[in-house]
Design a protein that fits this description.
single chain, 169 residues, alpha+beta, Alpha-Beta Plaits, six-stranded antiparallel β-sheet, 4 helices, elongated
Length: 169
């Protein structure tokens, strides 16, 4: 993994106080900067389910459209799902589904905003929920669907600078 930020990685857990109790980090001293985050989630389906999805013949309808919308909605609500996550006013969210590899759908999210804290959790939540929505739309024809890996692929903005994950398949 690459971290091209100016500061070294911290080893202290910022969501714990001096006594080890969970707390929400105070970001008020931080500067508002442009923040971006991207994440991916892979969904693996049986050949039959993947072909039905590709051909638009699933019993529940347009599964990819439902999954993309679910992912966008989830990004906007990440702070309601993750207890110590800050509520952010997102300026842009996209969720894209790629079916270029047979048997797999890869969701990629991109989140953009100006804020005092990053959008990593929103990007990760977007692809996670998109993957779950796809599972829900396809489960009638394939209960063997697997989800994962889910990972942050890039983030920029703030004091820690830019992070780019090592490429993988």
């Amino acid at each position: 993994m690459k971290n091209s930020g100016k500061r070294p990685r911290r080893t202290a857990l910022t969501h714990l106080d001096a006594r080890g109790r969970a707390r929400m980090v105070d970001v008020s001293p931080k500067s508002v900067t442009l923040r971006r985050a991207s994440a991916t989630a892979d969904v693996t389906l049986t050949r039959t389910a993947w072909e039905l999805l590709r051909d638009g013949r699933l019993p529940k309808g347009d599964a990819l459209a439902v999954a993309r919308i679910a992912g966008i909605q989830a990004a906007k609500r990440a702070s309601e799902l993750i207890p110590l996550c800050h509520a952010l006013s997102l300026e842009g969210v996209t969720v894209v589904a790629d079916m270029s590899r047979e048997g797999r759908v890869r969701f990629t999210s991109n989140v953009t905003l100006h804020a005092r804290t990053g959008a990593e959790m929103e990007a990760l939540t977007a692809v996670s929920v998109a993957a779950l929505a796809l599972y829900d739309m396809c489960k009638a024809v394939d209960r063997a669907i697997t989800i994962g890996p889910i990972r942050l692929i890039e983030k920029s903005g703030g004091r820690s600078g830019r992070y780019v994950a090592e490429p993988n398949a």
